[in-house]
Amino acid sequence: GQNIDQPTEMTATEGAIVQINCTYQTSGFNGLFWYQQHAGEAPTFLSYNVLDGLEEKGRFSSFLSRSKGYSYLLLKELQMKDSASYLCAVMDSNYQLIWGAGTKLIIKP
Amino acid sequence: GAVVSQHPSRVICKSGTSVKIECRSLDFQATTMFWYRQFPKQSLMLMATSNEGSKATYEQGVEKDKFLINHASLTLSTLTVTSAHPEDSSFYICSAHIAGEDYSEQYFGPGTRLTVT
Which of A7, B84, B93, B101 is the most exposed place for a label (fewest CB within 10 A)? Predict the structure, then answer.
């Protein structure tokens, strides 16, 4: 079956760095997305990876290894406003989105 | 975890016709369902918020007469794209929201890819 795994919850300190991992097993691959979602709000797009390697966007970076079925989202210089859920989603060969359950990130001062 | 299904997963229709997309929460009752559309490599765009038994609330710029939403029960919401045009071709995603006194969770469907020719 198709499966996306990511940790349920993580805690980090303001100003630090945190890495949120996502592993996947899907029938085909047409890209991996990371979204940020604050409670009660719609998710916002963070990144899209379809080729192996690291994509950097300011404080956020996303890495993909297709051979390992693995991605991570790296957040640097953490701020309190980064407290949110982070969703990993993979688009399979049928262009269907397979969603992870999300990782709740708690930032402490 | 909770499961949300969408049907159909992919549809191709001719310009001028209407298409109905179903969103179902399979093992829970959703207080609210959301409809999104997504263009390639872009963020999800919220189209409307749907509460069971009441009219949907549409986001600014979304035509309510073109995108008809019906939320007949706590487990089913439908989005009908009326008089579809090629520019309506997109990826439509629903999500179901459940909330209690001390929790709030949202689960996404797999999406429906609409192609209008």
Answer: B101
